[in-house]
Amino acid sequence: MIAPPTASSTAIASSRWPATPSAATKHTTREYTLSARSRSRCRSFRPTFYCVGLNYAEHIREAAAKQGIKANLPKQPDVGYRAVNALIAHEEPVVIPRDARRCSTKASSPSSSARRAKHLSEAEALSCVLGYTIGNDVSERVWQKSDRTLWRAKNTDTFKPMGPWIETEVDLDALETRVRVNGRETTRFRTNAMLFGVATYISHDHPLCHPPPRRHHLDGHRRHLARPQAPATWSRSKSQGIGLLRNPFVAAGATG
């Protein structure tokens, strides 16, 4: 696995993290104290990453049933952009804006690319995947319905937590994701029960975007979360085989 810098500013070198995708690696347990500048560099991401929406049939059927309409399953991946300002780490707070009215969160299973790639077939697509992590994907549903784009509903600061690390050895078919809110399990699902798998949507968008390394794809399964009040609401997303991502949800102004 590839771990980000911790609160103690210490990073552990991993035998699975090559300097470049093709470089040889050596196992080491040495620890290095990172400067503030190094930590900033380690946490940098590309300006955008990608999300595949409407990719779980259960999610689509559930939403349609609540609206009293027929479920309409997509025939191809629905890929959208997400903004890097929304990214936060494990245990960092999701800050709900003062004028937000109805926020929801969903567990997601982001994949991270290791190299530039373009015009990949579905059979070749996973060759560019470095590994997988966990996301708490937050949306403001009133804004999503009223705005022409998703600029604030999906991309508000702190709305896309990811972590706690990138796991490089994953059997997607064996993964199960569980979500707990304040200790109560709200959903459990097979992580790879997607309408369009990771290889499908990578091959679908790579011919157009020529994405750089460290680009992330996000897939999610929704469960609603009421607007948090003090004390903080905690959302935990756990993926067997990857780890645990936990974030408090707080109202704007509560973090100082």
Q: Could you characterize what this model shows?
A:
The protein has two domains: 1-44, no CATH class; 46-251, Fumarylacetoacetate hydrolase, domain 2. It is globular and about 45 Å long. The longest helix has 12 residues, at 198-209. It is built from four helices and 15 strands. It starts with 9 loop residues before the first strand and ends in a 5-residue tail after the last strand. The protein has 256 residues and is of the alpha+beta class. Strands 3, 4, 5, 7, 8, 9, 10 and 13 form an eight-stranded mixed β-sheet that branches. A five-stranded mixed β-sheet has the order 6-15-14-11-12, with no helix packed on it.
Key descriptive features of the protein:
eight-stranded mixed sheet; 35% strand; 15 strands; five-stranded mixed sheet; alpha+beta; 2 domains; 256 residues
Spell out the blueprint of helices and strands.
Layout: E1 10-12, E2 31-33, H1 36-42, E3 48-53, H2 57-67, E4 78-83, E5 87-88, E6 94-96, E7 103-108, E8 111-113, E9 129-140, H3 141-146, E10 160-167, E11 176-181, E12 184-190, H4 198-209, E13 216-224, E14 233-239, E15 243-251
Parallel strand pairs: 3-13, 5-10, 6-15
Antiparallel strand pairs: 1-2, 3-4, 7-9, 7-13, 8-9, 8-13, 9-10, 11-12, 11-14, 14-15
Summarize the structure.
With 256 residues, the protein is of the alpha+beta class. The chain has helices spanning 36-42, 57-67, 141-146, 198-209, and strands at residues 10-12, 31-33, 48-53, 78-83, 87-88, 94-96, 103-108, 111-113, 129-140, 160-167, 176-181, 184-190, 216-224, 233-239, 243-251.
